[in-house]
Each structure stands twice: as structure tokens, then as C-alpha cells.
Amino acid sequence: MTTFLGMPVVHAPPGVGALQGDEAFPAAARRALADSQLRRNIGRATSTIRAKRAAVVDEVPDWEQLREAGRTLKAQTMARLPELLEQLEEQVQARGGVVHWARDAQEANEIVTRLVRATGADEVVKVKSMATQEIGLNEALEAAGIAAWETDLAELIVQLGHDRPSHILVPAIHRNRQEILEIFRREMPGLGTDLPDGLTADPRELAMTARRHLRRTFLRARVAVSGANFAVAETGTLSVVESEGNGRMCLTLPETLITVMGIEKLVPTWTDLEVFLQLLPRSSTGERMNPYTSMWTGVTTGDGPQEFHLVLLDNGRTAVLADEVGREALHCIRCSACLNVCPVYERTGGHAYGSVYPGPIGAVLSPLLTGVTGDGVNDTLPYASSLCGACYDVCPVKIDIPSILVELRAQHVEARAASHLVPGPEALAMTAAAAAMTKASRWRLLQRMSRLGRLLGRPRGSADRRITALPPPLSSWTASRDLPVPPPATFREQWLRERS
Amino acid sequence: MRIALFITCLADTLYPSVGRATVAVLERLGHEVVFPAEQTCCGQMHINTGYQRDALPVVRHHVEVFEPYDVVVAPSGSCVGSVRHQHARVARRAGDEALALRAEAIAARTYELSELLVDVLGVEDVGATYAHRVTYHPTCHSLRMLRVADKPLRLLQQVRGLDLVELPEADSCCGFGGTFALKNADTSTAMLTDKVRHVLSTAAEVCTAGDSSCLMHIGGGLSRLRTGTRTVHLAEILASTGGTR
After folding, report:
1. Would B49 be classed as within a structural domain?
2. Is the pTM for the entire model greater than 0.80?
3. Minimal CB count within 10 Å: which of A28, A144, A230, A420?
4. ipTM > 0.95 (yes/no)
């Protein structure tokens, strides 16, 4: 289901950045499910955020209209993306900024590295950003001898823990406060921050310790790297919304600011922000308004960074735009409401998805960006859902995630069929079942065969027999669930016998 | 009213009592029920597992079978959800606009049982008696695809003798999800465990729902753990006029 947009479809390159893990979802999930500490941490955190979100959404009488407005604005933006991006470029340049276009993660990393080197700095401070996580910027900078310091508290915890983020909004959601205390104790002294004697896992104490650790870095850093929540094409304004004030520090103190932004983060006009600045905080942190909303337009002499670079990142996004069903995933404003309501995410956590984008939106966005190949690790992600639809209900821009999951499963099956000469057992079974389902006489035959299952009921001779063990692949059902014994006659047999 | 029964492949094969109960309720209310014998399956398993090309002739078959009828009922939120939200999409994806339009026309007159009773027939008291402690699981597709909301609960509230207990975290998925239960069996089981835990916390004898598939999953867990709690389809409760089961 792709549309020819007049340019080649280029997916995010493999091996660069963090859009794909190295293990299929079911195997990674199995390991995560066995981690009882992880289960408890994530279960507690998601249920707390769910309740907060529900409370602040319920109090908005026109929430459904806001969602519809958000959806419409995003759809219109995607339909006019090329011209709006050029308008943004013009506006940013007219106000003293420099715009760079990055085809993929590799190019974006090279651009940022070159820009930092040109300043002579050997370190940068970072605002929490999904785009830079996606491209693996920190690792690329490190390889070039440039230290990248995460300044968001949760990102700092992840970085100090030599860990990976597991949630879009709360990257350290898989850690509890005791684990955070241990990470601080182990890592901070080596970075020049002495910890007070008797530091406990009290959240305020931990936050104040992080604050002291970060403050020195803020005052020292000459270069900051950020992402962007929104960019206004009409004015060239960039915006970051956050809770801790670390973003404001990074966006105002250093001499040079480099912003890496996915090309889908655009809104056409300033007034469009009104809709998204209502939708985002209520959906993400469950707040009426986030504590810090920073906006900047080019550079202002004598105030804030005197050099501003905007790196516009594709990394597979135009390929997603060409997918008629999948393109809706580009509407995502990274609120993570879908993660918090997802029964799969709640139990497996984010690492099982392998990508920096976990949960329902990650299960569609990651394979869309990297491409569905038929045998790829990300091909397993669209199946990581029971299609319960909770994600669609909470999405502030009404992305029909279940329908995209179903479409990507079809793309995966078709890619496999195209790349394998001999169909697998599942494909054969599906084709056979479909043949039976197009003619009632064949269907009745299949039903009669399934009645052989009556022989499998245990205990024999009991009125309450059940099937407790079946051969593969049905063994994965009976590993934890019984099945009823098929009845002596199907409904249609009973009906035909009694009524005709 | 003359109503065509879409039994669904699962109820037909494994749970014929659900079909009999659906017929019994509607006939008791004075309606004529017909069973189009050529029917098979809505194709949801194929669609949701990625086999949309295989699903296309199944969808066409369903359309041809049910086209002659004015009202179609199924004792399944999930299968009605597929008819209503997926059939036309499958046809359009294959470039068959004519089939999509025919599928949409049938979708508009296909109802899940509680929708038919409450919305179309305007009935909440179907004259049932069922003296058991019951908890109700709102299945995902009836809740979020069909928006049946509290219609099943309104029907249950009118059943004589029935002690209805609220299910904690009722709207979270039981973990079935069709082939999800096989492909991601561990995650599915983790979801089922929490559902079973909540069902048991109600001390109900019976867990009911409007979908045989979800009940097969929840019931499979309840049975494996020998909990003594059983699953009964909503239609069977509404058809009941007493007795012990």
C-alpha cells in the first residue's frame, strides 16, 4: 500500500541508531516477563500515569473535538509537508538560524559532529530528545571524542546506568528509586559529584543530588543539543515542552544550540500550537499544563544562543509518508499515552521492543521506519498486540494503531511470500482454512475433522473432559490454558437435524 | 422481525449451545430466526494474522451469503467488529470497490446480540431467570470497536435471581487476541493471569461475556487452574429460565 511520491523510498539504514533490536519480540518479551522487579516497577508506574491522565482528560468537555482537531491538523500538515518544510527553512534562515537536511541517521550524526567540532567544544549538554536517541547521536559523538551529557533526570539515570530507555516519556520507568540510588552511588563520584553521607532513596534527595550534579555541567557547557516537540512553519519557531527546567537551561545558556528534529514535527501556523499544547501535557504526564514550554525563533543578539542550527531528519520518514495506511503514524506527538494503557507494554516493558520507540506506537513506527522485509526482527513487532484497541482510544491525535498493526502484518506476510519459494506451515494452513471457508460443504468437512479432538479429552470417561495438551504449534495454547472438547454435533448439524 | 443468525465459526464448531441460546432468546421475544446454511466464517483470523489475500474470498463469501437478509445477528462482538470495520477495508486493499460497498451495506445491518436486543428491538428484560453470582467481562472489540457500552450489563440487570458483581479492571484485555495467544503465548498468558485474578476476586461462580473466543481464553485459564469458576456466554444467561446450569 505505497504511493509513489516521485522519489525513491529510503528506509532508515540498518546498523545505525536504535530503531531495531537483535532479538524477535516473543523471545525478548519472555525474558522481560520473568523479571519480577521490572513487572512491579512498570505495573505501578503505568497505572499511576493512567489514572492521572484519565482525571485530567475527563475534565475537558471538548476533548473529542480537540483530538479531531489534532488529527486533522496533522493530516493536513503531512499532505503539504514539502512546501511547509521549505517555508520553515526560509523562516529559520531569515531569523539567523542555519538549516541542515539529513537523509538518515548517519548523515544527521555527521552533521552534528561537524558542527560541535567547529565550536572547538569537547562536550555538549542534551535536552531529552527521541530523535537523537533514534539516531544514536550520543554514541556517534562519543566516538568522535565529544562527551554528551543527558540532563533530563530520567535520561541521566539511563545514561549513568549504561542502560537503554524503555519508555518515550519516562525512559527510566523500569527502575525504582532504590535502583536509582545505587546507580548514583556507583557513577556520580567518578564524574566529580560527591554524594552526601546517608543519601537515601527519597525522591527529593535523589532529585537534589542530580540537580547539583547537573548544575555544574549547565554552567560549563558551550554547546547544547535538543530535539523539538513542534516547529511552526509560518514563523520558524521551535518548541520544547518539559517538566524539569533542564531543557530551559540547555536552550538558553550555551553559545551554540543544535536542534535535531524529525521532519514530521511540523505545524503550519502559530495558532495550531493551541491544540497540541492542550493535548500533549494531559496525554503524557497527566498534567493540565507542563511546567516549562520553551519557544525560540532563530537567534536574538545578546540573548540566548548566538548560533542556532536546525537539523531536519528524514531517516525513513518519507518512506512512511508513502505508505497509505502507515503514514498516520507520523502524526504521533510522542505523548506515550498508548504505552501506558497497553496491556502488552505494561507486562513486558519497553526493552522487549528493541527500538527506542516501544509500545503500540513503536510496534508500528519502528517497522515502518526500518521497512518490513519478511524476515527482520522488527517484523515481529506488529504481532506484539492483542488488538485490544486501548491505544487508539487514548491517542490524542486519533492514530488508528490497530488498523496499522493489521496492515503491517499483511505487508509482512506478503513480503515473506515474495522472498520464500516454499510457503511455511502457517501460510499453508491459512490457505487451506480459507479454501474451506469459501464453501460450506468443505467447511463441514473441516469441522468433522476437528471433532477428532474429542479423543484428546482427559480424563477419559469423565463428563467434564478437557484438552490439556496439544502438539505444536497449538502446544503454546495448552502450555497454560485448557481447551474444551468439541461437542458431538456442531450448531449447523443440530439445526439441520431439528429444523429442516 | 426476521433475523438471520451469523453463528460464527467458533460457536458453530465448539460452542453450539451459544447459537441455540441466541435462537431461543429471539424466538421467545416473538421473532423469526433463520440460519443461512452456506455461511462459514468472517475471516477475522486471516485478516488479523496478515493473510488478507486469503481473507478476500472469505469476505466475498460472507457478503454473498448474508446479502439477502435485512437484519443479521451474531453472538460475538469481535466477529461483528470484523464485519463492520474490516471487510470493506480488505476489499478496498485488494482494489475491489464494488465488494467494499456491498460489505458496507451488510455491515450496517449486522448487529452483536446486545446491540440487537437493546438498540433495534428495544428490549432490556428478555424474561430470563439465572440464580447465580455472575461477573461480566466487557470484551475489547465489543467495548472499543462496537461501543456496546453498558448494553450487556443492562440486559443482565433485568435477569431474575442474578447476582451481578463488578469485575475489577474490567476493560483490560484478557490476552486472547486470536493468533496473538499462540505467537506471543507468554505475554498472552501474563495478561490472562491478571484477568483470572480479577475474576476470582469477585467470588463469582460464572464469568460471562459476549464473545465465545474471549470466554474460551478466560475459561481455559480458569479450567487449567481448577478454580471452579466457569464461563458462560451472555446469550446462554439470557436464554436461561432457571435450572442449575
Report:
1. yes
2. yes
3. A420
4. yes
